[in-house]
Write a structure and sequence with these properties.
The complex is a heterodimer of chains A (100) and B (205). Chain A is of the alpha+beta class and 100 residues long. Chain A is 58% helix and 18% strand. Chain A has helices spanning 9-12, 14-24, 31-38, 42-54, 77-98, and strands spanning 29-30, 58-65, 68-75. Chain A has a three-stranded antiparallel sheet with strand order 1-3-2. In chain A, a hairpin with a 2-residue loop joins β2 (58-65) and β3 (68-75). The longest helix of chain B has 38 residues, at 167-204. Chain B has one domain. In chain B, α2 (32-51) runs antiparallel to α7 (167-204), α4 (90-115) runs antiparallel to α5 (121-143) and α5 packs antiparallel against α6. Classes of the chains: A alpha+beta (100), B mainly alpha (205). The A-B interface holds A 12, 14, 17-18, 21-30, 32-33, 37, 65, 70, 83, 87, 90-91, 93-94, 97-98 and B 3, 6-7, 10-11, 13-14, 16-18, 20-25, 82, 85-91, 93.
Chain lengths: 100, 205
């Protein structure tokens, strides 16, 4: 019997999973866009993005555009492979649950 | 019972990933009008040439007008997107790259053929068919859109007709391809985009 895979705890949080999925389809995204798409509060969003940043799954760039501060988030290569691995593990677990 | 809820939770996670990826890729931009604009521009150029008055100017003036309108609107959109902090999608960039490359090929090749004295109507139609077939084909494969691949097949067929058929047959085939693959396809694209916008507005209210 093959061993069941473990799910990456950094990605498993719902908001962090939503953020990584959103970032996988765009080149980079601003904090306000991520907030609008997830419907999250500033504090919670900032905390979850920090966890993803600490895990090396997203990179952050802060800059000024027309004198307004802008925080841009981009998915890193390790974030992309972590999300891919997570989806594979999820499918494997679901397969095992459906066909025990 | 607990196993059932765990399975449901895993399915929810998978559903969340799919919906968020789709949400990230979704854009508010509309492109259908560009197909219609270029379809009408070609028809205007052909009709103007057929009238005989200043026929050498016909293609140059109408195509330049279409280029100016297209570039103007796209530049305005990019500025608006940057102002509103909307992200560029990788999918959108891929499709845009294909069309920009093909647009540049048109701008380089067609005038060069004219300057070189090689611009017979069959050759020009073959070039149009090949390049639009390439752009529609690549774009349809990126977007996984079968209808657009159908348009690509029509353009490639036009290129073949232009190589083996008479000037009259090629012109008729060009008019048919323009009507279906630019005007009808563009209008269909605009309807789809409007439907999607309406659906999104309903969800977000």
């Amino acid at each position: 019997m093959s061993e069941l895979p473990e799910l990456d705890p950094v990605i498993h949080g719902k908001l962090r999973l939503a953020l990584l999925s959103l970032l996988s389809g765009v080149e980079e995204a601003e904090f306000t866009w991520l907030r609008a798409k997830t419907g999250s509060t500033d504090g919670n969003l900032g905390a979850q993005l920090l966890k993803l940043e600490e895990a090396g799954y997203v990179s952050v760039e802060k800059k000024f555009v027309q004198r307004k501060p802008q925080t841009l988030y981009r998915m890193t290569d390790s974030g992309r492979s972590a999300l891919t691995g997570y989806v594979q593990a999820l499918k494997q677990l679901l397969g095992a649950a459906i066909n025990p | 019972m607990q196993e059932e809820s765990t399975t449901q939770e895993l399915k929810d996670r998978l559903g969340l990933i799919e919906s968020m990826i789709a949400e990230g890729r979704r854009t508010t931009e509309s492109w259908g009008w560009i197909f219609v604009l270029w379809g009408v521009a070609y028809y205007a150029a052909i009709a103007w040439s057929a009238l005989g008055d200043h026929s050498s100017l016909a293609a140059n003036v109408t195509i330049m007008a279409a280029v100016i309108i297209t570039v103007g609107v796209i530049v305005g959109r990019i500025a608006r997107r940057k102002q509103n902090s909307l992200p560029a999608t990788t999918l959108g960039r891929s499709v845009t790259a294909v069309w920009i490359a093909v647009g540049i090929s048109f701008m380089v090749l067609l005038p060069s053929l004219g300057i070189g004295g090689l611009s017979t109507s069959n050759l020009v139609i073959a070039v149009i068919g090949t390049l639009l077939g390439t752009a529609n084909g690549a774009s349809s494969m990126i977007l996984k859109w079968k209808l657009q691949f159908g348009c690509a097949l029509v353009w490639w067929m036009l290129a073949v007709i232009a190589c083996v058929g008479t000037a009259r047959q090629s012109l008729i085939a060009l008019l048919v391809a323009l009507f279906f693959c630019q005007i009808v396809f563009g209008v269909y694209g605009m309807i789809c985009e409007a439907r999607e916008r309406k659906q999104r507005d309903t969800i977000h209210v």
